[in-house]
Amino acid sequence: MSDLRDLLGVAWAGLAARRTRTLLIMLGPIVGVAAMVGAVGLTESAKGDLKQTLSKLGTNLIVAKAGGTFGQQDPVFPEDAVDRAKAVPTVTSAAATSELSGVIALPSEGSAEHFEAFPVPVQAADLALPSVLQVPIRSGRWLNESDAGGGSRAVVLGAGLAREYGFVPGEIRTIRLDDIDYGVVGVLGPVALDPSLDNAVFLTQWAAEHDFGTEGKPSRLYVRSEEGRTQETADAIPTAISLGGPDEVSTEVPTDVLAASARADKTLQQTALFAGLLALAVGGLGIANVMSISVIQRSSEIGIRRAVGHTRARVGSQFLLEALFVGILGGFAGAVVGVAVVYGISALAGWVVVVSYGRIPIWMGLALAVSVAAGLAPSVKAARLEPLETLRLG
Amino acid sequence: MIGPLLELERVSRVYGEEVPVYALREVSLQIHPGDFLSIVGPSGSGKSTMLGLLGCLDKPTSGTIRIGGVDATALDDAGRTALRGTAIGFVFQQFHLIPHLTALGNVETALLFRGITRTERRKRALDALDRVGLARRADHRPVQLSGGEQQRVAIARAIVTEPLMVLADEPTGALDSKNAAMVLDIFRELQSPARAVVMVTHDLGVAATTERKVSMRDGEIVADERRALAST
Description:
The complex is a heterodimer. In chain A, 56% of the residues lie in helices and 15% in strands. By secondary structure, chain A is of the alpha+beta class. The radius of gyration of chain A is 34 Å and the shape is elongated. Chain B has one domain: Rossmann fold (3-Layer(aba) Sandwich). In chain B, α3 packs parallel to α5 (147-159). Chain B has a six-stranded mixed beta sheet with strand order 6-7-8-3-9-10, sandwiched between helices. The chains are: A alpha+beta, B alpha/beta.
């Protein structure tokens, strides 16, 4: 026990005596661990927002699209597609939209020249659409029973379209669909899961049938499933809707795309991790290099220690312990620097800080292993030095 | 009379394999407790080789070395290291102090790994420094000490373990005459009935201060003289 204490004292004194050199060789583990902590922390923090959004949106929304085989234009579902989808036991809610082709939307009279160049998708929507999408109404209201019953020609604008039209909340405004005036009753909030809806104008199925002669066949279905059963529900929906018929139905889970985009950062993360490992490896070489030189510079010290009775093992352990201290302190300092960088940059970028503290000990251990491995050869060299040669007698 | 403290019996040290060069040839020598002896000879006479063998820093090619009755030639490296630690104290021409340690730390180095508490180690090291008149300089690093002081610290390091033999290699070689005289005085004081002091030197003036003078040439002992010292 006292031997170990003596050894720790000797190794510590050796490091403390050469502070600049010690700091320099510590840079390897510091940079390595800081790079890894920082890389993973920053990529995770950059995704932190996305993950929050993801959990807010819910990962159980399914979008079903009518598939057009054999060049069929404007493919549609059967009229009762919503009911058919709701027949799937794991479906909790569903709403449909039908896109009206060839209907030109204009914010006002006389603006045709500008706006005809940017066709606005006109969607006949179910009243349940915002609740299925879990999207709030930004201003005004959504289409209601009265509208659907033919009480009024009302439309709701997508968030993006409202901005494009310069719509002011509370403003009394009409827009033209072909030649028919519609009153704007509200603006739908942004739909993160289907951004194409942001630029759309929504009207009721009644209006679509009455004014534009549609058959009320939906082209797109938005379906919520029970939590955790999204994929099997998505798989069941095509059969439920087509009922064995020829209608092609494709489904997708939009949050999968988000999740994939969250995962896409893995490449960056791995690159950065690799850079950290590289820094660690280069740092290891630095430790090995500097310690080798140090063993030569300290050969007189080694010789005298051996002369006064310190065994080869103790002299070797002394140098190995110095490498161990470098690894421990460097790894710890690197972790502190890494976490500080993550907090600093996240604060600047306005990210939600995510630090995987659980993985830090692994990286610190790695830095330690690299340092000790790097110190191994110099330590063996120190242990093998012959005192007779280092003391230059006579 | 008690047996010799250190005994060399027909010891040879040969370097090189194909063309053997005899650094020492069939040398026999006995050193007794209380001996104050110098080994003298010109460069290449084999005195450095002799020092390495006496100090258990080297193994002879043939012959036997016994230290305190223990056959040192039969020991492995660890055994010789342990023997060095207990039986021999070294003083070198270049002092070989560890630059980042204080005088006290340098002396304490010889007491490490012996299961001695830090307090006890300090006390003994301070005592040893006191014996060479440097207790007040205990906290100084080697660069803050004069050559003579550094050598006295080295002597304190050599005696702090109470060795059977103090082995000095040209201990005054790097010192001016005043400091050299002081160091030689200390060596003379170190002599005790239980301990031997051996100095290896090419300086006949230094050799003249010892009671016994062993002269070497071409790897052999050519003279082993004893005389009473005029001054003591």
